[in-house]
Design a protein that fits this description.
alpha+beta, Thiol Ester Dehydrase, Chain A, 4 helices, 7 strands, elongated
Amino acid sequence: MPTVIEKKQEKEYIGFEAEPTAWHTISQEAINQFADCTLDHQFIHVDPEKAKDTPFGTTIAHGFLSLSMLSHFAEQYSVIIDGFYMGLNYGFDKVRFMSPVKVNSRIRARAKILDIEEAKAGQYRVKTQVTVDIEGEDKPALIAEWISMQLVA
């Protein structure tokens, strides 16, 4: 559930760390569907038999699949300005893929607000550092600095 903040109090939320999201399982079906959407059918993602012979011993999710899950997780960790009526993906300042996500692994996101600025009246840019954890692993799947634009009435 997003945290709603009052206009003109946004700077107080810089450094805010949301509770970690719920865990989400990355299934082979999800990996295959992502491969179909992106036309990236590299065997390491879609061929469990061939993938057994790799250092991972199984298929792994596409890095971009793990990154795309930020949209799902954002519903749980977001900070939104009161009067919010629409959000837009503004881009990323940094993305690093740290560790592969093996099939049937569970991932979750942790988020920290790095900056909130009113770009112009009713338009706020929010920069969030998002870390995607893999259950039972020391290294995260990825760390990203994601920028969103919030349109506020």
